[in-house]
Write a structure and sequence with these properties.
By secondary structure, this protein is mostly helical. The chain has one domain. It has five helices and two strands; from the N terminus they run H-H-E-H-H-H-E. Strands 1-2 form a two-stranded antiparallel ribbon. The chain is globular and about 45 Å long.
Length: 98
């Protein structure tokens, strides 16, 4: 396939590692979420495990491939969760409200 190569795999691996490590870290957030004062938690405001963060990233990619259907649900759920958040048992909170 023209334009594809090993850098695609490296790119995907980088983002998988970035999101999984950042969201399961003690800061519980990515750089972008931190800029807006948001944190990522599991149930009961606990830190998301690395394994759960991996599941979240995989599901997020799958929903992106299917016309972003998983992201559309954010506007219609009570807790403003996408399908990927529900599958991984994840919540995104405003840090000032915790």
């Amino acid at each position: 396939m023209p334009g594809s190569g090993p850098w695609h795999i490296s790119f995907a691996y980088f983002f998988w590692l970035y999101f999984a490590c950042q969201e399961s870290s003690s800061k519980q957030t990515t750089i972008g979420k931190r800029a807006f004062g948001l944190v990522v938690t599991g149930s009961e405001y606990r830190r998301v495990s690395f394994g759960r963060a991996i599941v979240l990233w995989i599901v997020k990619i799958l929903y992106a491939l299917i016309l972003y259907i998983g992201f559309i649900t954010i506007g219609f759920t009570r807790r403003k969760q996408g399908l990927h958040d529900m599958v991984a048992g994840k919540y995104v909170w405003d840090k000032s409200r915790l």
